[in-house]
Structures are given as structure tokens and as C-alpha cells.
Amino acid sequence: MAQVSAANTQLLVRDLTVRFPTTRGTVQAVNGVTFDLAKGASLGIVGESGSGKSVTAKTLMNLLPRTAEVSGDVIFEGEDVRRLALQGREHFWGVKMTMVFQDPMTSLNPVKKCGEQIAETLRYHLKRDKKTALAEAEDLLAQVGIPEPGKRVNQYPHELSGGLRQRVVIAMALACEPSLLIADEPTTAVDVTVQKHLLDLLDKLREDRGMSMILITHDLGVARGRCDEIAVMYAGRLVERSAPETLFSDSRHPYTDALLRSIPRIEQPSHTRLEPIPGRPPELINPPEQCAYAPRCRFAQADCLESIPDISGVAGMHEFACFHPANTDRGREALASNLASGRTATGLEISSAGASS
Amino acid sequence: MKQFILRRIAQLVLVFFAVTFLTFASLNLVGDPLFNIVGVISGIPDEQCEAVARGEIEDTKSSGLNMGDCALIAQAKEQNNLDKNVVERYGIWLSDMAGGDFGTSFVNGDEISDIVQERLPVTVRLIVLAQIVALGIAIPWGVASAYRANRTFDKASTVGSFGLLSIPNFALGVILLYFFTLRWQIFPSRYENAGWWSELKALTLPAFTLGLGLAATYQRLLRTDLITTLQDDFIHMARAKGMSDRHIMYRHALRPSMFSVITVFGVNTGALIGGALVVEQIFSIPGVGTELVEAVLRNDPPVVIALISVVAIGFVLINFVVDLTYGYLDPRVRTS
Description:
The complex is a heterodimer.
Chain A: E1 9-22, E2 25-38, E3 42-46, H1 53-60, E4 69-76, E5 79-80, H2 81-87, E6 97-100, H3 114-126, H4 130-143, H5 149-152, H6 162-174, E7 180-184, H7 192-209, E8 212-217, H8 220-224, E9 229-234, E10 237-242, H9 244-249, H10 254-261, E11 312-314, E12 318-320, H11 329-341
Parallel strand pairs in A: 3-8, 3-9, 6-7, 7-8
Antiparallel strand pairs in A: 1-2, 1-4, 4-5, 9-10, 10-12, 11-12
Chain B: H1 2-30, H2 33-38, H3 46-54, H4 69-80, H5 86-98, H6 112-147, H7 152-166, H8 169-183, H9 196-229, H10 233-240, H11 245-253, H12 259-282, H13 288-297, H14 301-329, H15 331-335
């Protein structure tokens, strides 16, 4: 990546591939994912369940089960993360790189007091004594906007609401001042009003601390206002990557295009039908050598079934992996011919209702 | 919490009454207590003695009676309240018990409270030691096999624990006795109590005999629960926090995985008392088990009832403590 200067790059992921051998065959969870993250930047990884976004995050965090087969490079601040994992490096995860999980109801240990759970990282990584660690924990709880932190440190997770618990989780993740925070669907399990508060909090903390963030979500809307760049994943591959404005106004990959169409928009007249994406996510065991999205794609042509499109385009600006990208002449042609015949190259029946541009 | 404890105490009282009454009643129904006190002359029919009392027949050989037999029976009945019905006698027994009077043995006239005082501590120490051995082995063992589940160590453990589970107590006891006492002479062959060290040495082999099988049970339970707990999100979170594996296993996963072990711990204490019975025999330990067997064999109901009551109270108390432990293990139990 020429335009990303090495000094400013915090995280480099190159051709990351993750496979899980199972009795039914090998699950190809992540296939050749490549991206960079600049210091202090935020990247949104968007995709549906099974798209490989969480597996990517878990690979970075060294949380994959032992059976996983990983290849590719992950370089964090000049260090080879996969080698650190093999060496059993301590005080790296949790200190430089941490993660917040989806469900605050289950990601706190139910039998330990909140304060204790925050303090233990400080004691283990930064060798604080018990008293100092608890005082710092209380301070962290205040920083993440928890009222009465002095009381909360001595409470158990079940005594707190979901929103407060997620704040505790965030405080826990931030305890050792990490330079990268991976947030895996941090707001999916809490209700909408709390969602916004939490996202605002994450934004603020990120800015205050100059921390970078990878925000994993299935909700394009969540990623929109909060990320410098959005990467869309489908079937273990990155299919499109660009700044949010570009992605929302000028998407290229038909999957992104379809995702955008399935979001309800306030400017649409009421009772406008949302356009669901037909079909189901593909099987990740022994997938055929073709574009994984083709069976659900309104733009699919014969060449989509012959090989897998590589991600290409202007690196760092707008990249996508499609032979007939939407919002281009090639794409418009493909869609028009499919509409004319009533079906795509994969046999998906389409009609002109809600026709694409 | 207060209500919880009160409810438990009420349960304790109920269980105590149920166990003691059933034991009391069954021992009275199964055999004639009078026979155990005065022997064959208990077979003399009541009418005959009543006739003697009225002076209708003579208390001599001619009527099939020995001089003073009826007086003896009357005295025994009087002393042990046998002329009253079972419920009444149970009531008397209870009030005596409440006053600390366990009564005396029918057979040798020993004070039962002395027997309990002498025998109970030995058995309690044996059981406590056995549980310590069991937990001391099972916890690190369960953690180690769950940490690398289905790998070599875990698979070997499974074989090992099933092996231990399938050896009966008495066989294991004899094997241990053969190696550690006969061959290597590390531990004494009979129970001696000259200070705590000699007692500890004397109780070590019996404790292992009882504890090893238990350790295998606990290890199986702990392993399964740990494997489930290790799938939980908070374990991933702890790993994402970069905590060491050791810290995660012992400080995060262990406590929420102890429920089955603790439950079985409580229930097993009852079984341990039964197991102690056999093991006490093998290692000739003068505990409650040995005494209970002897009392049953010599038809000594007061001793049997007293010992069973003590065991029952102990069992209920331990399970009460186990229930309190749930609250410690999981704070969510405390509030609900």
C-alpha cells in the first residue's frame, strides 16, 4: 500500500486465511483478507453472520480454537502477531490490543465483582497492588460514564443493566490503555437508545486516547458515521472497501448495493417495501470456484461462475471484488440483460420491480 | 438470606424427626426390644405374669417359670418404658436426647454418649481427610484435563478415573495396605492415636482408600463442567484481556464449574459414612461405622438409633453447608 506510510500504519493484515477442519469438511472461514489500519483510525468491518468478520477479529486476538489453520501475515506495530502467539507472548493482548464482545450479559464473569474484573488486568499486566488497581478500576468506571462508580466496583454483573455492563466491559478493555480496540458487535445486544450512547462513548474514548478501532457490525448504519473506512465482507472475503461516504453514495459491489437497499430510509415514503437479498449465505465447506455472491446476485453473468474476482481498484480509496460492479456501465449492462431475460446466469429469477440503477 | 437459613433450619428439624422416628419405630417393630434385654424369658406371656401377680399361679418351676422372671421382666419394662407404646417411647427418647442423655446399651450397659464421644471424632476426621484427599486430587486433575480436553492427558485421565471408579473400596484398601504397610512399611498397620501425627499417619491410607474413588467422581464432574464453562463468553473476554491460562482456569473458570462437585460432595458424605464402615473394618479403626455394625449384630437398638441419628444430623448439616456454598460460588443465588 503505497499511500499508507509505514510509520503511520499500525496494523497490517496480508492475505489472511483461516480454515477450520470439521468432520464434514474444511470450513473456509476467512479467505485472503488484506487491509491496513492507520494509527488512531477506525475501520468498520461489515457483514452478515458467517461472513468471517468475527473470525478475523479473533485471529488478531489469538482467540481461535487450536484446531484453526491460519496463514497470512498480521503485523501490529512492526511485530508479527502470529509469531507472538506461537511464542506465548504475555502482556501483549489486553495491553496493546484488546477486544469488546457482543453480549455484555455473558462477557462478564458472573461470580466476580465488577471492580475486581477490571483490577485483575491492571494487577497482572501492570503489576499494580490490589488497592491501587481497585482505585484505578473505580476511576475507569467513572471515565466510561458509570454513575456511582464507588458502589459499582463492589457489585456483581447481574446487579447491573445491560448498558452498564457493556460500559464495564469497555472499561475493562481500556484498563491498560491499548492502542487498538476491536469491538465485535458491541451494541448488538443492547437496546437502541443505549446503542447510541455506547457508540458515542467509544468514539470519545478513541479520540481522547488516540486509539485505533476496528468496529465489527452487521449494521451498515452503525459503521457509517463512526468509521474512517468501511470494509464489507462476504463469505470470508473482503468484497468492498472504501470511505463511508463513497460506499453509501457510490457502492460498487452488488452485495453492498443490496445491503444498502435493504436499509429502511427516512426519506422514503411510508410503506415502501424493503428489498431483501434473495437466497441464503453460502456454505463455507468446499465452496465452488466462483464468486460466492453470484447465486444471490442480480448482476450475475456467466464469467461470475468461472472464477473468483480479486479485490482491486484504487488501494486505500475504493476497492471492490466484482466483474460487473454496480453503478458502472459494465454493471448496468449486466443487470439490463438479466432483467431482459428475467433470470441471472445462476438461474435466479429477477423482475424489474425495484430495479437497480 | 436470613429467610433461607431459617427455612433450612426448619428442614433440618423435619429431617431429624423423620430419620430418628423411622429408625426408632422400625427397630421396635422388627424385633422385640425386651428380648435383647432379658433374653429368652421375654417369651413369657403377659397373662402368665399377670396371673402370678394376682397369686393365681405360683412363680415356680411347675408353671414353667423361674423364680423372679416376672419381676425381672417388670423391672426391664419399667426401666426402658417398654410398657408404653412406640410413640410415647419415642417422645421419652427425644426428651432424654435433648437433655444430652442418649441412654445406655441394652447389651453391655455402656453409656451411649460415651460411645459417641469416643467413636464419632475418629470417623469425622477420617471423612474430612478423605474429602480433602479427593478434592486435593480432583481439582488440579480436572483442571488439567479440561484445559486440554480430548488430548492425550485427558484421554489417559478418563481411563485412569474409570479405573479408580471401578475398584471397590475394600479392594483398594487391601491393595494400599499391601504395598504401603506390608511391603514398604510407610504407614502403620493398625490405628493408633498417640498425638495428631500418629493419627494422621494411621488415617492416611484409609483416607486415600475412600478419597481416590471420590476424586475420580469429582474429576469427571469438574472436567465436564469446566469444558462447558470454557465455552462461555467471559472466558474469551478474560483471554482477550490477556490473562494467563493458569489465571483463567483457576480464577475464572473453576468457581462457576464447582456446582456439580459441591452437590455430589454433600450427597457423597452420606455414602462416605457407609464407605467408612467397610474401610474402618479393613484398617481396624474404632469409628462410628465399626460400632454401628457391632451394635446391629448384637441387637442393641439404643446404640443403633443413637448412631444413626448422629449420622443423619451430620448429613443434613453438611448439605446445609453445601447449600450455603452455592451462594458463595454464585452471587446470583444469594439474591434470588
